[in-house]
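Methods — Computational structure assignment.
A single polypeptide chain was analysed. Its primary sequence is given first, followed by the predicted tertiary structure written as C-alpha cells.
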Amino acid sequence: MNKKSNQIQNELDQTTKRLDELTEMRDRLNNNLQTLQSGFVDGKASLDNLQTEQSKLTTLDSSIKALEAKQSELRDAFQKASLSESRQNLLDTARAAALEAETLFNQALEIRRELDNKTGELAEKFCDRLFSFHAKKREYMKLRGQLEPTTKTPGLSNDVVLLLEKNHLNFPPIRFGLSVDSSIRTIEAEREKSELAKRQAEKARQMSSGRY
C-alpha cells in the first residue's frame, strides 16, 4: 500500500532530526579523537582509548551514510507521492466539475422541455382563441351586412368597430415576440398539415367506396 505524502513527510522529519543528532555526535567525537590522537602521540593517552573512539566514529559514519541514503529515498518518495496526490486531486476536482456540469445540463434540458411544452400549450390556446375570434367576426359581419352601412351597433367602442370592421388586429409588442410568433406559426403549420392529412384520408376513403 502506497504511503501518503504526510506519512512520508513525518518519516522524513524524523530521519532528518536523527541525522542532525548523529552529525552533532560525530562532530564531538571528531574533536575528542583529535585530542586523543595528540595525547597518544605525546604519550598521555592509551591506544585502547584511541581505538575505542575511532570505532565509535566509524560506526557513526556508517550510520550517518545510511540515514542520508534513507533521507534521499524519502525525499524522492515524498515528491512522487505529492505529484500523485496532486494529480489525483485534479482528477477528483475535474470529475466533480463534470458531474455538476452534467446535472446542470440535465436541469437545463428539463427546463427547455418544460418551456417547449408551456409554449406549445399557450400557442395552441392562442390559435384556438384567434380561430374563434375570426369565426365570431364573420358572424358579426354577416349580421351587419343585413343592416344599413350607416347604422351603428350600439354599445361598441370605436376600437371594437375598427377591430371587427376594418380588420385592425393590433398586437402590442412583447419581449419575446419573435419566439411567440414562431411558435404560433409552428402550431398553424401543424394544424394545416393535420387537416390536409384528414382531407386526403377522406378522399381516399371515398374513392375506395366509389363515392368520388
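Note: The mean pLDDT is 88.
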